[in-house]
Structure formats: structure tokens, C-alpha cells
Predict the structure.
Amino acid sequence: MNSIWSSALIFIFVLVGTAIGLILRAVLPSHHLSEESRDAVKLGVGLIATLTALVLGLLVSSAKGSFDTVNTSLTECGAKVILLDHTLAAYGPEAAPARAQLRRSIQNAVTMFWPGQGKKMGGLNAFEKGDGMERIQAELRQLAPQSDAQRSLQAQAIQFSNDLLGSRWLMIERAQLTLPPIFFIMLLFWLTVLFACFGLLAPRNETVIVVLLVSAMSVTGAMFLIEEMNTPLSGVMKISSAPITKALEHIGK
């Protein structure tokens, strides 16, 4: 379930819960809305609100951590790409094919995830099927060092390519992590009950309805942010391409 659908579903359920609460307030006998009954309902609402706030806080923190991890990994990849290119440049003209393959691979990665900077090529699925780094490693292994310096540079280049390949698969595996359905179901249930209680306790006037609507939009926005930060390589809150495009500028210089 993507961020738009999950947020829309929460918004709908929250509105339904609010409507149920407002209807119940109008049809319930007066003794169900006595001061003692309202106090009991407020205690239950407080408990549910606390649980909901804790879960939302944990989900936001976890999603932000995932977003930052991928962002940091992408920045490190950009630095390693530059170091790999400089190492190949120091090796000599024999490494020119590997440098050309490196540039093509990085350019393909940019157009996969940031289509505004080139032709769209399929996003994460295409990234997973790509073999650009494997081709670079094949080029590196075909090099025939003629000196100790070249052997050292070849070993460094292979190490950088191994690091980049490992980071690539790590980002692919992280992208498979999603919000557990039980978290979403329980959160949906708590929010529906919570807003039903709000509607039950609140008077039916324009001010209350506007406040409840804004509250529903705020909760929906929180869920949208959680889902978006859990998918940092796609969606609206996609991580910046600046580290990779900067690395691309340095390749071949």
C-alpha cells in the first residue's frame, strides 16, 4: 500500500468515526451523556490517544531513521564513486574503459530514480536488474598491472567497487522493508475509535467540525510522512540526487 492510499484510507475511517460519534450524540438517551458517563469516556479517550501518540511517534522516528540511513548511504556512494574514478585515472590510460563504464552506470542510476534529469528507466526494479558495477569489476580484473603502484591502485579500485556494489544491494534490501500490516490496522482502529469519541463528546457546531476536520488532516499527514520516509528512493519525499550528480560531474576529469 503506497503513501497516498494508506493516508486516504485513514482519512476516510477517521471521518466515518467522527460521523458515527456525532450521530450517537444525537440519538443516545440523555443518561448516556451524563457527567459521569462523559468522564468515563474521557478516560478511555485519554488512554487510546496516548497509545496512538506513542505508536505514531515510534513510526515517525523509525521512518526518519530509515530515510537518513539511505541518504547517508547515497552520500557515501557519491564520495566512493569520485575516489574510484580518481584511482582509475591514476592507474593510467589502460583504465579508460572502466572509467567510461563507471560514468554510464552512474548516469543510468540518476535517470532511474530522478526522471526529471533524464529519461525514466524503471526505478528500483531497473536498478536491481542493472549490472553496471559488475561490468566495472570485470574491467578492473582484466587490467594487467605493470608495477607495484598499478597493482596497489587496482586493488584499491576493486575495493571501492566492492563497497559500491554492497551499498547498492543494501539499498535494494532496505527498500523491501514496509510497515507491518498489524501496525497499520491497529492504528486505523485506534484513530477511528478516538475520533468517534471526539464526535460523541463534542457539540455539533461549525467550529467543532472544522477543528475535527483539521485534526483528521493532521493525522493523515503524519501517516503520509511515515510512508514517504519509508520509501526514500521514490514518492514525493525522494532523497536528493545532489551527491550522485556531483560525483557524475567529477567522473572523467
